[in-house]
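Researcher: Let's do a round of design. I'm pasting the structure tokens now; please hold your answer until I've finished.
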């Protein structure tokens, strides 16, 4: 079974660079890619049945938009380029979801882009890339 590399993808320029790097790396090691796009989702237990139904409809719409805007173009760009690519659009906390995907896939590496955001929120709460590098169960590469 080929080695699997998980790539965090959010549609940004930084994630596009990470995906290019991951593709080259997978080709180099004869591995596969698992491209993961995470939609943040917070299930509230105090919603009414109508609100839950409305959220379910919105959730389906968000998944469809992510497939069309992010996953579809990735598949088209890398089709027939020598690396098997699987994709996943998941709801959850970004870090936890990426680690879960890497663990489930027995990944050998996680690759993520660095957004370069140096705003106050990043300084206070930390970035996804920075936190991922600290808690990843496998080697983590941050692509500038």
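Researcher: That's everything. Go ahead.
Model: Designed sequence:
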């Amino acid at each position: 079974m080929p080695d699997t590399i998980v790539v965090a993808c959010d549609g940004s320029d930084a994630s596009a660079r990470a995906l290019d790097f991951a593709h080259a790396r997978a080709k180099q090691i004869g591995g596969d890619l698992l491209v993961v796009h995470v939609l943040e989702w917070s299930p509230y237990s105090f919603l009414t049945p109508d609100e839950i139904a409305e959220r379910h409809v919105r959730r389906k719409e968000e998944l469809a938009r992510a497939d069309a805007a992010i996953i579809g173009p990735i598949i088209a760009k890398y089709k027939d380029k020598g690396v098997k690519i699987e994709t996943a659009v998941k709801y959850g906390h970004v870090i936890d979801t990426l680690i879960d995907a890497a663990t489930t896939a027995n990944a050998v590496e996680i690759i993520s882009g660095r957004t370069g955001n140096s705003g106050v929120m990043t300084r206070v709460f930390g970035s996804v890339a920075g936190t991922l590098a600290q808690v990843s169960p496998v080697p983590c590469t941050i692509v500038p």
